[in-house]
Amino acid sequence: MKSEGRIDILIIGDATTGSGVSETLIGKGFRVARADVEGYSHRSRVGGAIVVQAGERGPEFEALGLEPGNRVVALSDFLEALPDIQPFDKSGGPAPLVVFLLGLAGESSCRATRDALAASSVLLDDLGRRVAMLYGNLKVSAAGLEAEVREARRKGALLLRFSSARPTFVRNGEGRPAVECLDEASRRRLILHPDWIVKDEILRAGPGDLERAARLGAEPGPDGFLPSDNVYRFGLETNRRGILGIIPDADPLGRDTLEDDLAAAMLEMRALDRFDSWAPDRVAVIDPGLCARCLTCHRSCPHGAVAVGERIEIVPQACFACGICEAACPAKAITLRERDPEKGPLEAVPRPVLLDIRPGDLVTFGCRRSAERARALCGHLGAGRPADLVFVPVDCAGRISREMLMDAFLQDASGVLVLTCHPGNCHAEKGNLQARSRVGEVRRFLEEAGLNPERVRFNTLAANMGVEFGRMVREFKAELDQR
Ligand code: SF4
Ligand code: SF4
Fold first, then answer.
1. What is the pLDDT of residue 339?
2. CATH code of the domain containing 26
3. Which atom, in ligand 1's list, is nearest to the CA of 286?
């Protein structure tokens, strides 16, 4: 993917937006190739790829138990209908009510807030309607929005916030909607009979976005978009190094951030330009003589780093050396290897082993990034930990295998505690989740063997949780001693 010091960047994704991104990059002097989902396989060893995820906005009525139709509409549809709504003659009885639902199911946006406020202003000032805004997380961080909300309230709009329980929706005998809710401020139960219910639209990845993600071996977040909220990544990064995700329409403030995103992507792509001369210090390596082609590593690698071809191989540039594949490989064909400081040949990184356990010891396996630091802090704080605690640090909890946990019991440990980073904080994406699953397997094994499954426990913590570390091991130890 290299040419005259410039990498070729593969743009994958939505035809319209993808073309715009390609043109922008070409204008900046980059060599750009386009690929659609048919033309791309994640087994390709791309130097750099930008996946443009256009997403789709939808009202997702079902998330609130709403049935669309009969004056239950999406915000964009209501804005289109607004010019045709006739002013209400106030001598004809109480003014009809329009209820806006914002941020009650999924992340809303400043754009939706602004649109709803603009429509409210027309409804209140010109069309003689009443307005209620029912919201969960109201997005008001765009310039001037908070003042607009205050102005809507001043004009008579009813604003109700829902932090936990959500409103419920029913239809009367004529099919007209009614809203039942608890006003959290006054603790009064309210029943509203709106003329219209207007729901904001939520941005989520569309089917095309999801298909591309699957092909790339990149794992989407909860909304189906590739950039995840893992704390170790910057905004565009995905779980696959070298593959970046751009969502042109995602900014909660409604700004056009494409230029900024592309500038950030370019920095990353220039770093990738050094791929040919760059080699990781630590990487997983497969011994082809031992590999049974079971594909367990391919399925378990959270970074899409295991390529399947004539041989099963690990793409070094994509490998985070988490050790998940090493712990999972049934043929023991995978070893983590690292270079010495002089960049000599790759040497095997020894697997963590248990030495000098005395019967009755509590063995704790802990990630170096979180548990080991919390343990050190616990010592500094004098927060107290049992003397018979054997602590085994691992570079990533993904490297903890079933055999390691069972070995502790074979050596007569009283219990085994596995401590990892919190969900979403694992630098290797899923090392913590893999460790939790190994603990589950060992619990089941103990149960089947007629032993107490409570002798093995899983917990998460952060590096600054020294006090909690002490509490977790003390409490577990106390429970074990009572048995
Ligand atoms: S898990 Fe082990 S045996 Fe299975 S494909 Fe990977 S390296 Fe080969
Ligand atoms: S060590 Fe981790 S990142 Fe590298 S190939 Fe194995 S599972 Fe994937």
1. 74
2. 3.50.50.60
3. 7
